[in-house]
Amino acid sequence: MKLLDEFHGIRDDPYTYGKKLKAERNRKIIGYFCSYTPEEIIYAAGIHPMRLFGAQGEITLADTHFQAYCCSLVRGALEGALKGKLNFLDGTVFPHTCDSIQRLSDVWRLNTSFGFFADVVLPVKLNSESARRYMTDVLSKFRNNLEKGFGRRIEDQHLRKAIDTYNHIRTYLEQIYSLHSENPHIISGSDVYAIVRASMIMDRDDLLDKLPAVVEGIKRGDTDADNGTKKRILLVGGICNHPDVYRILEKSGGSVIWDDLCTGSRYFSGIIDNSGDPVESLANRYMERPVCPAKHLSVKSRGEHLVNLVKEKEADGVIFLLLKFCDPHAFDYPHMKEYCNRQGIPCMVLEIEDRLPTEGQLLTRFETFMHML
Amino acid sequence: MSRFMKDLLIYCLAKAKKAKLGLSKNKGMRDIMTVYYMEAKTARLSRRKVAWITSGGPVEPLIAMDIIPVYPENHGAMIGASKMGAELCEKAEEMGYSRDLCSYARSDISCATVNGGPIGGLPRPDMLVCCNNICGTVLKWYEIQARYFNVPLFILDTPFCHTEYAEEMKRYVKRQIEEYLVFLEDVCGRKLNHATMEKVGRLSVEGQQLWQAVLDTAANRPSPMTAFDAFFHLALIVTLRGTQITVDYYRNLLKTLNDKVEKGIGAVPNERYRLLWDNLPIWYRLRWLSKKFAEHDACLVADTYTTAWCGTLKYMDENKFLDSMAEAYTRIYLNIGIDEMAKTVMDMIDKYHVDGFVMHSNRSCKPYSLGQYDIRRIVQEEKGIPCLVIEADMTDERNFSESQVATRINAFMEMIKERKG
Ligand code: SF4
Ligand code: SF4
Ligand code: SF4
User: Fold this and answer.
1) B281 preceded by cis ω (within 30°)?
2) Do both B44 and B167 map to the same domain?
3) Which of A20, A193, B81, B159 can bridge B169 by disulfide, Cβ–Cβ 3.0-4.6 Å?
4) Sign of CA dihedral B340, B342, B344, B346
């Protein structure tokens, strides 16, 4: 489908897209690294929220700030900034999650200058009334900071419009996931991945203009995926920075039919009730959204969520995608695996340092796993 | 011998020891810690409840409720000092935990399943109290133990203070302190006695003041103590903060140290160079490191780690302990931005007349170690003293290369000697 070329292009080269957006449309752009960023508030201020994924490739400049035992996301993020790849930004936002990103925020504040800077120190605990109140306070504060930083008012009506826009975007993305999950032959996993990834980068109004046509195109069968039988795989982890995973997996006879990733379903799950106070509504989504392991909902929530997803999406197996040196996910892996074992759900783990194993190696590992299913 | 009989025996031994030692007389650290662990291990027999709590967690309400606090991190330090870290960490890796995770967490998680380690495992908890003011690791670690032991978990969520301790944080933490007390009352099925709580609060502040005074003696030349001594004496302010025993112990220690100061006795015989240590101790190489520095006539006069247990005294009000606790527990050294950490470091450099800064880049502890390079840069720029980074791990000795560290220390000391003469 021709339309998808644009999504692939943006996913492949987000920086060029960002620069163009700035140069041609004079947009203010705020970069962020984590799916707990309250994008709706940024959007409501008329600023473009753009998700960053960190520079891939060799790390040199960031080495003077971070030890080698720091995850490649954090190191890559700083590398990108220090190399000047992010100069189109007007600011950055750091929601609080893990110990590493927490220190990235400090180092960023002290060593870069993109204009606006904010920490959004969210609660870690998401299961109490006091945490909910605190979450609302923190989001309100971020709203004020943005207003001050950019000298513009963010009215409730702007927030409502933003929530509405995001509700639509999220609904479309979920629909695309569902279409693919119902029929993995209708569109390839790589295409689905490109759509979701690009959605975090693109101007959201443009995106919302394009998504209906994408959904229609998929339904019509304009997209192509190969026709071999596919094992249904659930991909679980933090973020996935590696489009090749989807392609190689399909080559091996599998397909990612759903995920629990921040570059996937965690981004779009949770439609916001837009009738109450908008900031409270935003807070509620974060309190209820499938949880990141750096946050706490209950000691069982992530395991249960995983098992439910497997059942609901009729997955044949689970692949855990772990980034080396990523503590929160590494701590959760053994018990998530145990949840799978108890339910007889086959799983495998793929640990990635900063780049994937060679295609041959990865293919062999995937094939071995597919044979087990 | 049945498990019960064994426990009973240990319990009786503890009682006997306690009787012999007397409660308020001065006792050695090892005796106090032995009795403490024996009491904890036999809590079932004395019908007391056991709470596992993080090292930066608010222990005072537990003491006031007569709940025995147990510190998995202190246990981790003991495991490290007994050189059992690598083995237990390996066991955790077999359980699926990555080698890159905190070695305290790894060794405790595996230890719980085999009752291994230097004291045959920690006593089973009745509840878990996790304060995330030190790191996000403890959150995951306590979740794991909450599942394993199937006991209630209380999380005191102390928002990270990158640049400020904001109003909304204050409100949030204060509310949680109230929730914490309710949690304890629920688990214990009885009410907190507020008079006792006040008393414990006062003792806690007094203990911290004394601990600060103990550390302050190192400002003298020569210093009567080294950071290695501080690592040893630290145990009480961590585990038994808010008790009379702790106050007595540090008062006595302070007296001994002041005597030494008066007589001009230094901890390092020919103290010429004074160093500041950053990050957790390398528990399995303390003696070696201490000798290594002493060989160069260098005394580690202070460290950023042990000061953390008195570093927020400025926010504490002994007369309004519960109220001030929220701020004091939120603004500890590891819960602030690296620029503020660097400031703390530089204040210590001035206070203790420091000639060089030794940073332990600790693979296990990301919140402590990530950002160190920037702190080093700030310190070098503003204080112009040499800084050394040692790559190691506090408990997992597989991440320590003696020859490499020795070479680096020697080179660093040469630099200092050249500068100072
Ligand atoms: S896994 Fe957690 S820290 Fe990472 S992007 Fe998602 S929410 Fe943020
Ligand atoms: S959650 Fe993991 S991958 Fe993300 S910044 Fe933290 S350590 Fe890195
Ligand atoms: S050593 Fe560091 S990571 Fe481990 S529990 Fe202590 S503060 Fe947390």
Assistant:
1) no
2) yes
3) B159
4) negative
DSSP string covering B242-259, please? Answer: TSHHHHHHHHHHHHHHHH
The first and second tokens of residue A181, run together, are 């999950």
Determine the Cα–Cα distance for residues A77 and B118; give it in Å rounded to an integer. 42
CB within 8 A of A209, min separation 6: which ones? none
Same domain, B154 and B221: no
Last residue of a domain, one of B167, B192, B217: B192
| Interface contact B374-A325, CB threshold 8 A | no
Name all domains of chain A by residue range, CATH numbers in brackets: 3-154 (3.40.50.11890)
Q: For residue A233, list its beta bridge partners.
A: A256, A317
Query: B20-42: per-residue pLDDT in tens?
Result: 433 334 468 989 999 999 999 99
Where chain B has pLDDT below 50, the residues are: 1-2, 4-5, 7-9, 11-26
Q: Are residues B100 and B127 in the same domain?
A: yes
Same domain, B13 and B65: no
Whether the CB-CB separation of A131 and B157 falls below 8 Å is answered with yes
The ipTM value here is: 0.96
- Residue ranges with strand state E in B72-136: 127-131
Residues with CB under 6 A from ligand 3: B 73, 102, 104-105, 134-135, 137-138, 280, 364-365, 367-368
Note whether B181 and B215 are same-domain residues: no
Report CB contact under 8 Å: A300, B147.
yes
Give the domain extent around B317. Answer: 197-420
